[in-house]
Amino acid sequence: MDNEAVQTIxxxxxxxxxxxxxxxxxxxxxxxxxxLASAGNATIGANAxxxxxxxxxxxxxxxxxxxNVSSKDRIQLTSTAKLTGDIRAKRLSxxxxxxxxxxxxxxxxxxxxxxxxxxxxxxxxxxxxxxVIEEDADDKxxxxxxxK
Length: 148
What we know:
- The protein is built from no helices and 20 strands.
- The protein has strands at residues 8-10, 15-17, 20-22, 26-28, 31-33, 36-38, 41-44, 49-50, 54-56, 58-61, 64-66, 69-71, 74-77, 82-84, 87-89, 91-94, 99-101, 104-106, 133-135, 145-147.
- It is globular.
- The N and C termini lie far apart (62 Å).
């Protein structure tokens, strides 16, 4: 994604209220109060604030996003990213220090997971009574334990 030239830039001193749609790569360094839909790649700068959903081929989040992010390929959250919302992509990269509050769906195959019933065993409840096994001092050297 870094080798693709950015065709649209929304500068740090720009604030937009409303949805933004573009057919190319976009970098937002300002504030967007609305949804972003890019047919290309989207980069959200470190000082950017997005209050809306993002849809793109792939996305790099460096700033703050309050909304869901959906990409056809990859989403990257850098160490400065603060995302409150759900993520959906084929691939996800999260750097140490990034904040993510929401659900993630990462599915490299792009296929819906199988939800067939009957393919799994029901969950068994945990034992009602715990059994404590203590070490016998005489058998310590042998590594044996006895039920007390």
